[in-house]
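Here is one such tokenized protein:
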Amino acid sequence: MIQKNWTLDQLNATNKNTLMEQLGIEYLIVEDGFVRARMPVDDRTKQPMGLLHGGGSLALAETVGGIGSTMIVDLEINDVRGSHMSANHIRSAKDGWVYAEARIIHRGRNTHIWNIDILGEDGQLISTCRLTNFIIPKQL
């Protein structure tokens, strides 16, 4: 189970054998209410036309919003589950890295809502996403 006091290296190690590892997602900053991560734009994350796949952007966005909620709830008694994701793709990326910046905009008892912007290396907006997470009691 993930712990709130883990280092970035420990958090990144949890990506082993997951979709996040397959896509090359790496956490850069994980703070209360804010997460920044990056993902390469390469053969793993492109669609056949050579551009960043929208599904890759959504996977990156759900990853950062999910770890963000995980780091601010009591994991002894709660689980975090994605409920709804929406995205607007603004421009394309062909190579390099994209960076996701997630900011919590609603921190409720049962739901968290995150705004996630995906930016190119030049800081230009690639996609903007909205994620709702359910905070549910663990079945003891």
